[in-house]
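Reopening this one. Same input as before:
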Amino acid sequence: MKKETATLAGGCFWGMEEIIRKIPGVLKTDVGYSGGSVDNPTYTIVKLGTTNHAESIQIEFDPAKLSYLDLLGYFFRMHDPTTVNQQGNDKGTQYRSVIFFHSPEQKATAEEVIKRVEASKKWPRPIVTQVIPATKFYPAEDYHQDYLQKNPQGYTCHWLRD
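Same output, byte for byte:
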């Protein structure tokens, strides 16, 4: 089986992971930190908003069952890609919307999806999602992994919109 990796950031990683884990074709999810300037960041440092890390989810998926295009379709339905450094009540650079691409093909697909989403006018404001090269992904602490599975009443600002 061929596997592909995607790394996405769209606010608090707990809610994103809970939605993404249920998508057919997703093989594995890990929450963590991407795009910042500090090696081996911890939640305590990232939450300060000074490292430029984004709370991210790294996804391993089977491209025969789930295309990158379709995965990004879910991404743009589960968070508000028009808010700068914010999702719901969560504010700071760590909650920004980012697609970390792993290949030129992923970059081209991300840019095309953003054009389609903007053209659809589903969002009243411009898309602010960044499309940048994938950087080292640092897994978050164990208590963050599968958080909403462990804490079903936990906080999330993510849901799938039509």
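So the earlier flakiness isn't reproducible anymore. For the record, The helical segments are 13-20, 43-46, 68-78, 104-120, 147-150.
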